[in-house]
Write a structure and sequence with these properties.
583 residues, alpha/beta, 4-stranded antiparallel sheet, 20 helices, globular
Length: 583
Amino acid sequence: MADMNNNKPRGNSGENRDSKPSFGGNGERKFSNKPGFGGNRGATGDRKPGFRGDKPAFRGEKPAFGGEKPRFDGEKRPARGDKPAFGERKPSNGGGDGRKFGDKPGFGGGRGGNRPGFAAPRGNGDRKPVQGKTIKPHQQEGLPARRLALEVIREVTEKGKFIHLVMDEKLRNCTLPLIDRRLAARLAYDTIENQMYLDHALNQLMAKPDCDIKLRNVLRLGACQILLEDRIPESAACNTAVALCKETEMEGLAGVCNGILRNLVRQKDELKWPDPQENPVKALSVRHSVPEWLVEKLLADWGDEAVNLMAFHSHDSYITVRPNLLKLDDAAFEAFLNEKVWEHETGKVAHSWRIRNMAEIAHDAGFVGGKFSIQSESSMMAAMAVEPKKGMQILDCCAAPGGKSCLMAEMMGGSGRVQAWELHEHRTDLISAQVKRLGLENVRPMTRDASVRRPDLEGTMDAVLLDAPCSGLGVMADKPDVKYRVTPESVAEIAQTQRQLLDAVAPYVKKGGTLVYSTCSVLKEENVRQAEDFLARHPEFELAKLPETIPAEFRQHEDVGLQLLPSRDGVEGFYICRFKRKR
């Protein structure tokens, strides 16, 4: 679920539903460099857009509940700022920025899970107008970047679209200079990520908090700059918000917008926040912009580690690539990378490299020519858990966009066969495109509904990989809108789909064969409990240990399957469980 261009929060093939809920209104979610409750605005450093999952490890002790989170160490980009404990002021650290995009073909290429990312611009798009000059709204400095950010925010909150897909499309088609695209990406992601936090602040200054969603989004964008950014003049945030009101047919509300944001500038240090002692769930919900029901579920599943999960943000801008094992071994791929201007280092998983300072990597001749793929380390480990061997017959049940299918085919040296199923034809086409680019002869993309049992396939597969549709909460740090789409009802529904899929595909495994179940979720309801229930229903299967191709630093956490946590393991949140069919 974490390979290139993948996105599978719903549906039995991982296909996103076309009708997505709108989540405008008062509540939503926050980002990493927000000031502590009652504190001053914090430093910015921004998130990288780009590739899902490849995150630096979270180091240091767990923070006390509701308290200050430990800092990241190691070579990282300047942090957006660690959140102070409730009520403390957060010092500005003047950090740089640089976001990562999810699923961006143009800026960093294909799928990976984090967001589109750029090194942060210094705020030259945010200078105050020169005194004595009249600047028309369309000429105002910094306005084009904010206009683009607002367009993305509106597409996500008013139309229910996915932020990484919208941002990808907007940046691919815009003509803004790089510095403005960086600023637009940063502001759009930070506003969406911190919606509940920003709304809580704004509601204290609004006579009618249930205002029109269009005005609410302009206010959110302005509040993001005032409360969360340390390099943007507050006057620029207010002035551009007023200009955006006028541009979006809300000229009559421009004065209201201006008054609210200027009051926020004056009163930001006097804002009231939930008391973590009196109502810890509410305090965490507002602080991290996570719905209260989800805070409760994460706390029940993970205890204090849940605070790390909600607070986690990747501070390092890189994507993970791997060589096409049929064309290049590791030494040859290292030599290939040495010819590039990209910074690179080996990842934690075999055949993985972490790349920085790349531009439009999906247009690179080596990528187009099939020399390498973009795939997160967690996704690679799910494929490695199958332990592919030459000549095997493997079924990848929910395969789009095909990263795991292709890796397994390469690990088999081009022999055997991988059937790569997808429910929707346009997603099957994604698999076919990867197979063609990589020159693989042993992958068979097929449009099939994996929930429909096929008696003719029973006992025919050496291995079956079910990378099941899930809530996607393992990548919520990189796709912040996922937290607002998921509900208790949708989690229960998706868990039932996972159960049906497991029951449908398990009979295809030969005696002595392997079944691997994986998700990109961190909820135990979708993961370890799903595995335990499967074993109870299917006594013909037994739990099997993961192969040693998965690094020991991850396998040490294996129990009933392996739960990878971004805050602990520095990779995309993922669950991988391996079963063997008894002989």
